Please model this.
Amino acid sequence: MAEQEKSTNYSYDLNADGADQALIGMVLKEGVYRPGEDQHFVPSGSPITLQLLQRLRQEKGVERVEAWSPQEQALSESMSRTQKLMTQARERSMGIVQHELNMRGTDIDHPEAVRSAIRTLKSRAAFTFLNELLGDLDSMVARILKDLNVETIEGIKRLRNHHESTGNHSIETGLRGMAIARSMGETDAIVHQVGLAGFVHDLGKLFIPLSILDKQGPLTNDEFAHMKHHAALGAEFLAEQGRISKPFSFAAGSHHETFTLQGGYGILTTDAERTDITLRGDDRQLAWRISNYLAISDVWTALGEPRAYHKVGKFEVEILLIIVDMMKQGKFHPQLFKEGFYALFHQRPEAQNMLHTGTHFPLFSFPRPLQEELKQRFNLPPLEWKLSVEELERLGLTKKVVRSGLDEELLQRHRGVTLHELRARRIFGVPDDLEREGIKPKRVDYRIAFLKDEGDFRVQAMLLKIDDTPLGLKARIASKQGVSLDAIQAYLFQKVGLFELDLAPYLQCPDDDFLKQVATGFR
Model:
């Protein structure tokens, strides 16, 4: 986190008006150092009392402290422990799988090496549900590795070398797809083929530049158009491999297609003329079924992963809200969604308490099904004046903004900076008439903060602009030296406040009549 962002969110002036009222009851986020000393004399985590504040004010050179609430401290520690454990487990598991791939052609049948890899995979919290559904995972993964020819193995190695997280994502997508297929009662042969297709479904990203795969902000239209070709590129790559049959090439090329073939992309729609993988009869039905398993497991896996454009994965309730909404748009196979994914999702221990925020950051972007309802309910402003990264560069303001403390990564992640922020930071050179410069107001994106679980999927919630946090707003209000709230932030804070939100209707599986309409409407 950039220093300016930390200061804005957590830093308090000990001598500011109302400092005692704001700080008493909080805890130190960072230890306090005497000027010129390397060790702090008040450690982080210390409760802030009136006596401590008086003691700090007596120290020369100590003018500010970093502080947060005990709840925020507990949440941060829980998140850090969880993220560290998951990262360590992911690195261990994927490292061992990479070892297995390296052994291909020499000692791939070594049973202890495969068992060791699976034990490590099963140690991850995210794979707890695999222990029961895929108890024979050892032999299944060994079969997958055996069925991949040398060229395809090299392709997987190249993908992990090119973009490690995509290689890891492919393995996880295959395993989740196998779990969904097993929960549907598929034969071992079908479960195996879903896993194999998952391992290779994203090989087309070998041909996508890292500048696109690792971009911090949103992709341009041209970049997204290039990204969308990865499914077809993967299908073409696999079609050239002798021992990889056409159904797996077809599945890789169509895993981003929707069940209704509307709004997706791949070899059946946007790249139909570019890539021709002809399949008929039973082969086509098998390939399409495998592709539908991958469509669900790919999204499920991706939503829980950290990405360049969001540093932590989404938490359970947000994942379910998004995937249920995608089903309502016809994205997934109705039967596989209801009897496979939805039933499996609710069996997992993590899903039993989806609104528990002790191990998850309780903020998420506005889910599509809630957007219109909440915008109308609270009359939320749809637009604000904001300059994109490209517009800042065109106006010659980028260096001035960076010097003010907003680093380029932060600008990319926030998709620019608001006009209010520029003025509050006293950045000169902003044209008075932005429309004359071809700059128009931007859409305001919102997110929800869960503050309290009321039970039965009812929560006390707070609406924020996409880049805000409750802590950041609190710091701005408490400190006169902080950047003041803009008009929309003030409106949300003062007029909207806390409200009760019932998520149950948005978390339920669509009813059978709706699923039948989706199924019968597909041709």
